[in-house]
Design a protein that fits this description.
- By secondary structure, the chain is an alpha/beta fold.
- It has a single domain, classed as P-loop containing nucleotide triphosphate hydrolases (Rossmann fold), CATH 3.40.50.300.
- Helices cover 51% and strands 10% of the residues.
- Helix 2 packs antiparallel against helix 3 and helix 5 crosses helix 6.
- It is globular, with a radius of gyration of 16 Å.
Length: 176
């Protein structure tokens, strides 16, 4: 059985992660999960485990056991797979302990656009939205710098066509 490196789609939220995960799942046939939150292509198996840990309803040991089980299940699928959840920015250093060199796609977008979108979509005050943006950006960039993991950056500040995103992903990760 081939063990595929997962595609981990990261970003601050409202940064293009849903578009990227949808393209991976629907166009490039990367298994991004069976159950999604709305139309966000967030694999609920990974999201639920992360949310339980981040809300302190389970401890680190339990989170790790559940994560290892999820990874084993995905590997048994014997096909390309991945996941995304903007909140996984807080867990990246832990996730990267499980993968030698995952396929990382970092979605970015202009700060003002993201903050505005967070406010509009979640009803957050500007200060809260900006704090979330700053926290997640800082964490993601620090972890990527520390790990030196190769990653594709997709900048959604300007409109990116589906064809463009597909070609960038295919070329960067040498996909057919």
């Amino acid at each position: 059985m081939q063990h595929f490196k997962p595609f981990i789609v990261i970003g601050t939220g409202r940064s293009g992660t849903t578009t990227t995960a949808k393209i991976l799942h629907e166009k490039l046939k990367v298994f991004m999960g069976n159950r999604f939150r709305g139309g966000h292509y967030e694999d609920l198996d990974f999201k639920d485990n992360d949310d339980l840990f981040l809300s302190r309803k389970i401890d680190l040991c339990t989170w790790r056991i559940c994560l290892a089980d999820l990874i084993r299940k995905r590997q048994k699928e014997d096909r390309p797979w991945g996941f995304k959840n903007p909140r996984n920015a807080y867990l990246l250093d832990l996730y990267f302990e499980y993968f030698m060199s995952p396929n990382i796609i970092y979605c970015i977008r202009n700060k003002k656009q993201i903050v505005s979108s967070l406010m509009k979509n979640y009803g957050w005050a500007g200060e809260v939205a900006e704090t979330v943006y700053n926290e997640r950006t800082q964490i993601i960039e620090e972890v990527l710098e520390q790990t030196k993991l190769k990653h594709l950056i997709l900048d959604f500040t300007e409109y990116l066509s589906e064809e463009y995103v597909i070609n960038k992903i295919k070329n960067f990760f040498n996909l057919q």
